[in-house]
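Recap quiz, item 2
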Amino acid sequence: MKEVYAQYWKRHLRIIGVLLVIWFLVSYGFGIVFADQLDAIRIGGFGLGFWFAQQGSMYVFVIIIFVYVFLMNRLDREFGVEEI
Amino acid sequence: MDIQFWTFLIVGLTFTLYIGIAVWSRAGSTSEFYVAGKGVHPLANGMATAADWMSAASFISMAGIIAFLGRDGAVYLMGWTGGYVLLALLLAPYLRKFGKFTVPDFVGDRYYSRTARLVAVACALFISFTYVAGQMRGVGIVFSRFLSVDINTGVVIGMVIVLIYAVLGGMKGITYTQVAQYCVLIFAYLVPVIYISIMMTSNPIPQLGFGGTVADGSGTYLLDKLDGLHIALGFDAYTSGIRPTMDVFFITMALMVGTAGLPHVIVRFFTVPRVKDARISAGYALILIVLLYATAPAVAVFAKTNLIETIHEVPYDEVPEWVTNWEATGLIGFEDKNADGRIQFNADPAINEVRVDQDIIVLANPEIANLPNWVVGLVAAGGLAAALSTAAGLLLVISTSVSRDLIKRTLKPDISEKHELLTARFAAAGAVIFAGYFGINPPGFVAQTIAFAFGLAAASFFPAILLGIFYKRMNMQGAVSGMVTGILFTAGYIIYFTMIRPDLNQAENWLFGISPEGIGTLGMLLNLSVSLVVSRLTPAPPDEIQDMVEKIRIPREIEDAVREG
């Protein structure tokens, strides 16, 4: 059981890791550190950096959580640890 | 029918609804009182979490703050939404699996010690009290503004209402009332904005409208127009960032991590039936929060453009009626410095003749857009819903900390369920009165409470819970020394710059250029490092604790799954 458990945790950590990298990138990367450079790209009236800071990062946050829920529920089923 | 009539009608109706729900859903057991019997549907829990989260400040002040900060206002937008990602991925599911009632419960059990539990109770009480002191004042201000009573009467009305449903219903009553309050507040926020978006940009979706072109047929983008107006008046362009990147980074991080560490937010995820419900519930909560938060920057742009165009270089006796109406409240004011009879708005304080309170951005919205009177009544009901739901959620955390963490788990473990429930109700009543006292006699630091509550939550709970779940080797010595270091450092820094030497509160005196608002991030890093180092130098936690950590990491134990076939 120990190995199965360790494997589940490892896969779990990989999902969280990838999603947190995206979380960091859209907010701190696009919205703060590279915002000025990204502002050179325009979408309608928005500079891309401004859009990420005040709109885009929040939408990506929502998507991250729903992707997480989907992946985790699938992982739980794969390992037979889902709740009944 | 006039504004006053509509305000009383709509506010009266919504209050009747809240009280009705509270009576219908009163709590019969401690489990119902603390965590609504763990039977709340994830969507309902998401709505309640969102209402709990969005305070009077989110509803009334945030758009205004963004309007005056420009792009830098994003620290609040990202900071107060990004924390839910941390919560959903790193804390909520495991805490739900752990299955007790409070954050100190987790800290006390995971770190197998009364000391750790007491440190956690002290942090929870301190954070919640700092937060609620500001909220009760907010309740009073909202009441006084909309119902034209004085602020203290407003605080008392708010106290009575919160008292009824918090003491009667506990978490169950509060949760279902908050579901109703969310509906009221989001409807009240969106209606005026959609009208204004159509008027200004011909786009009914404000989030798209403020990136679109102005509806006058010129083809100019609204944001370009606003940038132009700003530069013409001597301000920096609206869409450019002004604060140092380092500080913006730290403030955003402190708000995100603080969000994930606030006890009244975490406790929400104890109320759902299953681990998978805790995950999805965080998702629902965030969508519902983002619905308002993504609208706020649009409100900011519409209102700022409107404001500049309505008043700048306009002769004082030709301003629209709403300006003179709100002038009476002191939220907007003029001083004709060059005596030309016209109003000048300028970045240079020597020329500027306008004083604008940030709250006017949302409050005057319906009048700026010439909307019907019932919309004004609706905005009043929305502001009150936001203020009451947040205050109630915080008061519940305080009463739970007292009756469960302090009395049941520490001082008098043999207390009966009936007595514990009674104690919880008394503690809730006591907390309301205490908070009301601070609402009427606000301590000097109300303005800094945000920095305080978030900084402390970031520097104390977040690392302790995170390491408790993700690092099996973390022990009591590490966690306690980490929390104590984090709290002392963060509180010390904030107190020094806001109370002891406010005259030194400038960028050149700050540590690494980090403002008191962002210092919680550094406190968190300090807590993490101290915890890790101390835990390496002291014995590993007992085996049963390590087993417990393994168990909270999976929704259902594999052994059980095998046994059941």
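The mean pLDDT of chain A is 90.
Chain A touches chain B through 47 residues (CB under 8 Å).
End of item.
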